[in-house]
Write a structure and sequence with these properties.
Layout lengths: L4 H14 L4 H22 L10 H13 L4 H20 L26 H10 L3 H13 L3 H5 L6 E2 L4 E4 L8 E4 L5 H11 L19 H15 L7 H14 L4 H8 L4 H4 L7 H8 L3
Pfam families: Phage_int_SAM_1, Phage_integrase
Protein name: Tyrosine recombinase
InterPro entries: CB (IPR044068), DNA_brk_join_enz (IPR011010), Integrase-like_cat_sf (IPR013762), Integrase_catalytic (IPR002104), Integrase_recombinase_N (IPR010998), Integrase_SAM-like_N (IPR004107), Tyrosine_recombinase_XerCD (IPR050090)
Length: about 290
């Protein structure tokens, strides 16, 4: 029996929901597969069957993305989506093999992540005029949470008595517990007791108007503050997560502990944060 590519895509996305992949992951897969579908329909003048897709089609798709200026990391992610999709199709016997495994992935240049020093974080916080955003930025820096995880915290998942934050369904749909540091705890206690508006919203970081904050708004305030400081580096909420990890590495915290705090699936991802500035490298060679 022949199956239209779009039919199998729908089954794949339903499967992703059934195994409780996060909405963000499913949305990413959906967009990638929609992009590939449009490429193929233009290439072959209409709808096509999954068995008709060849390795050369996948390679041409990635080549087109490269010509369009997409970064290697973006192309690599789209290939990962196609591999996951064809792996599902192979296991369900829609195809005889996972052809995406035959495609060479784009070479990724390992770049050190941008991060802020401790003094830069404090300078940034001092320059932020919005009290709630100021607290969110400090929370991101002292916990290493992703911005979505931070803004989705509720009064139930932040346990100030036990000094713990429970991250529910983080990236990869995994839960984890992050301790609240001694520096952050009094700020959160003060916020809950005296500053948090009396609203029906259960979100921990609540505004009086909407009862919640959006990642876009937080990043906009960060961008405006960086402009005011006349910094040349781009600072987003995710840079604060990088900064958290980088400072822990600098203070010689074990990488396995950092991996658990960040919720990484492998140490390979965590090792990206092992920055070395030129002063540290100078000290290292002078040890000899």
């Amino acid at each position: 029996m022949m199956y239209l590519f779009t039919e199998v895509v729908q089954k794949f996305l339903q499967h992703m929901q059934a195994i409780e992949r996060s909405p963000e992951t499913i949305s990413g897969y959906s967009k990638d597969l929609e992009m590939f579908t449009r490429f193929m329909e233009k290439r072959y003048n209409g709808a096509f069957y999954i068995e008709e897709v060849k390795v050369s089609d996948l390679e041409s798709f990635l080549e087109q993305l490269q010509r369009q200026g997409q970064a290697p990391a973006s192309r690599s992610r789209r290939l990962y989506t196609l591999r996951s999709f064809f792996d599902y199709a192979y296991k369900k016997e829609f195809v005889k093999r996972n052809i995406a495994l035959s495609v060479e992935p784009p070479k990724l240049q390992q770049k050190e992540r941008t991060h802020l020093s401790e003094s830069e974080v404090m300078q940034l916080v001092d320059a932020i005029e919005h009290p709630l955003i100021k607290l969110v930025v400090l929370t991101l820096y002292y916990t290493g949470l992703r911005i979505s995880e931070c803004l989705n915290l509720t009064l139930d998942t932040v346990d100030l008595d036990e000094k713990r934050i429970r991250v529910i369904a983080g990236k990869g749909n995994k839960d984890r517990t992050v301790p609240i540091s001694d520096k952050l705890l009094p700020l959160l206690v003060e916020y809950v007791k005296k500053q948090r508006p009396k609203v029906s919203s259960n979100y921990f970081f609540a505004t009086g108007k909407t009862g919640m904050l959006s990642p876009v708004y937080v990043n906009r305030v960060l961008g405006e503050t960086v402009t005011k400081l006349k910094w040349k580096k781009k600072v987003t909420a995710h840079i604060l997560r990088h900064s958290f990890a980088s400072q822990l590495v600098k203070k010689e915290v074990n990488l396995v502990k950092i991996q658990k705090l960040l919720g990484h699936s492998s140490l390979k991802v965590t090792s990206i944060y092992t920055h070395s500035n030129i002063e540290e490298l100078c000290e290292a060679v002078n040890v000899l």
